Amino acid sequence: MSVQDNIQKHIETMGHSIIGVDAEEDEPPFAYTIGLTETYDHPEILVFCLDADSAKIILNNVISEIEDGEVLSDGMYLSRMANLPIAFKAIPFDAAKEFACQAVYRYEDSPFTPQFLQLVLPDQEGKFPWDRDYSEEMREMQPELWSVTRH
C-alpha cells in the first residue's frame, strides 16, 4: 500500500491523517495533518520540535477540538492542551509546502486549496517566539514559518 493509499484510508475512516517526520541533521522533527481541509473545511496544521508520537497526541487533541466545532485561526491560543498553552499562526503555502509534502501532493489536482496553520509551542518559561527572552534553543527547533515572506 502506498503512502497516498494509507492517507486516503485514514481520511476515509478518521477524517484526517497525520504524517510524522523524524529529525535530520539540520532539521527538527515535525508532523502535519492531511484531510482537515476536505473533511472540516479547516486549515491543515504543522508542528515542529516534537517526536512523532508526541506530535500525534497533541494534533489528535487539537483535531478533537475541531470536530467539536472549534475553528482555529491566526493568533489564536488554546490553553487546554497538554497542560500548556499553544498558539496558532497562519503560514504561507510556499513555506508549508517545503515540509507538508504529502499534503501538497494530495491537494495538487483536487478542488481543495489547503491553508496551513503552525501550532506554536512555548519554551520552558511559557514564552512564545514573539515574546521577549524566548529561548534561542527552542527557536532553532521551531522554525518561524509565519514570518516567511509571501509570494
Biggest sheet character: 6 strands, mixed
Order of the strands making up the biggest sheet: 1-2-3-6-5-4
Q: In angstroms, what is the radius of gyration?
A: 15 Å
How many structural domains in the coordinates?
1
Tell me the fraction of residues in β-strands, as a range.
Answer: 15-25%
Q: State the end-to-end distance.
A: 36 Å
Principal-axes shape call = globular
Task: Please trace the helix and strand order, writing H or E for each element.
Answer: HEEHEHEEHHEH
Instruction: State the share of residues found in helices, binned by percent.
Output: 25-40%
Give the beta-strand count.
6
The residue ranges in which pLDDT falls below 50 over 5 or more consecutive positions are none
Mean pLDDT: 91
Gist of the model:
It holds the Pfam family DUF4262. The protein has helices spanning 3-14, 36-40, 52-67, 93-97, 101-107, 136-141; strands at residues 17-21, 30-34, 44-48, 77-81, 84-91, 116-120. The chain is α+β, with helices and mostly antiparallel strands and 151 residues long.
Task: Give an overview of the whole structure.
This protein is an alpha+beta fold. It has one domain. 34% of the residues lie in helices and 22% in strands. It contains 6 helices and 6 strands, in the order H-E-E-H-E-H-E-E-H-H-E-H. It has helices at 3-14, 36-40, 52-67, 93-97, 101-107, 136-141, and strands at 17-21, 30-34, 44-48, 77-81, 84-91, 116-120. A 6-stranded mixed sheet has the order 1-2-3-6-5-4, with helices on both faces. A hairpin with an 8-residue loop joins strand 1 and strand 2. The radius of gyration is 15 Å and the shape is globular. The relative contact order is 0.17. InterPro entries: DUF4262 (IPR025358). It comes from Parachitinimonas caeni. This is DUF4262 domain-containing protein.
